[in-house]
Design goal:
By secondary structure, the chain is α/β, with parallel strands linked by helices. The protein has helices at 21-30, 47-60, 74-77, 110-142, 146-155, 161-167, 186-194, 211-222, 242-247, 265-315, 336-355, and strands at 8-14, 36-45, 63-67, 70-72, 84-88, 92-94, 158-160, 172-174, 238-240, 254-256.
Length: 356
């Protein structure tokens, strides 16, 4: 059976280059009036980006989202606007209450402490509103009460594919040969520990159970919300291609110094599509700049013309006055008929004086 064609591969952190709302809009616009297939494999990220992507799916109207791997937080919000959602039989699904970074390490007096308390209370109210909004979106999708979804978000436990289907988050469970079983790597463990995401009931993909690994596991139990970074020594020089990895929705893209890499046609197409998107944006920005430049030049020309007229008027002498006014009063202008009547009246007055 042929592999399913996906128009979008959304992986990594929501809001980053490999899970970007602008790129989603670009691909959807390329496939208007067509079904767009989207593959999602992400532990979450920006709620704002996820809501934008969900709205874009809803506007398009014909979007099919398929979940593989482990998906949590904002990655589950992004699909709410899709017309159809499926999940791989081995995939995992997690909804939980949203959070934000809170850090204060300082000496505070009573007033400063009160200010911090007020700021935290405002942040809590904002988070409560966001949680309620997200719960309503989940409830509409699952056809359940939002209070039930809020309770599930508060628990924040991982759901397997069957549980996600039972809740109504997805419409169907699939078992495609190309969908591999998710692996919990050291990098995934570090990410979940740093973002307060609970560990799923899956074995960590680490064949080397060294003393260092055991020590890190001990630290994770003691400090569950801390990120324990792994340090490795290597003599092989590697180059990391961060932006290519982002476009390809990969955690990393590396090659050894002087080595070579292989890419699939789908990966080349992803890079080509992203470059096309950036080129179109650059051309649009260039056209806008050109238009604004022309407008500015036109306004400058009009201003220079007005300045030239003012300078010419300032140098021109005043016109000579040819009319004589009586006692500083300007002569009144009369019509020919009025002039004729005045002449007749004057002649009559002269005639009357002669008769006397």
């Amino acid at each position: 059976m042929a592999k399913k064609l996906y128009h979008l591969h959304l992986k990594g952190t929501v809001g980053y280059w490999n899970f970007d709302a602008d790129y989603v809009d670009y691909v959807l616009n390329k496939h208007k009036d067509e079904q767009v297939n989207v593959l999602i494999d992400s532990l979450g990220g920006s709620v704002a980006s996820a809501l934008s992507i969900s709205a874009a799916f809803k506007r398009h109207g014909n979007v099919h989202v398929h979940y593989v791997g482990m998906n949590a937080s904002a990655a589950t919000i992004a699909s709410l606007g899709a017309a159809r959602i499926t999940i791989d039989t081995n995939a995992m699904y997690l909804v939980h209450k949203c959070s934000q970074m809170v850090f204060k390490w300082d000496l505070l007096n009573a007033d400063q402490l009160q200010q911090l308390i007020e700021e935290c209370e405002k942040a809590k109210k904002d988070l409560d509103k966001i949680d309620l909004n997200i719960a309503e979106g989940y409830a509409k999708r699952c056809k359940k009460e939002k209070e039930d979804l809020l309770a599930l978000m508060k628990v924040g436990g991982w759901l397997n594919a069957e549980e996600a289907l039972a809740w109504g988050f997805v419409d169907e469970i699939t078992d495609n040969p190309e969908d591999v079983k998710p692996k919990v790597t050291e990098e995934v463990v570090d990410f979940m520990a740093a973002h307060g995401i609970p560990m799923p009931d899956l074995p960590v993909d680490d064949e080397k159970q060294s003393l260092l690994h055991q020590f890190k596991e001990f630290l994770r139990k003691v400090y569950p919300n801390e990120s324990i970074k792994q340090t490795t020594n290597t003599t092989t020089m590697k180059k990391t291609f961060t932006f290519i990895a982002a476009v390809l929705a990969l955690a990393a893209f590396e090659c050894e110094e002087g080595g070579s890499v292989e890419m699939t046609c789908d990966q080349l197409k992803d890079i080509d599509d992203r470059l096309k998107c950036l080129t179109d944006q650059a051309e649009a920005n260039k056209a806008t700049i050109t238009q604004h430049t022309a407008t500015i030049d036109d306004l400058k020309a009009q201003l220079e013309a007005k300045n030239a007229e003012l300078q010419a008027l300032a140098k021109k002498p005043a016109e000579e006055t040819k009319q004589v006014t009586n006692q500083g009063q300007a002569p009144s202008e009369t019509s020919p008929l009025q002039d004729y009547c005045n002449e007749v009246k004057g002649a009559q007055e002269m005639l009357n004086q002669i008769k006397k």
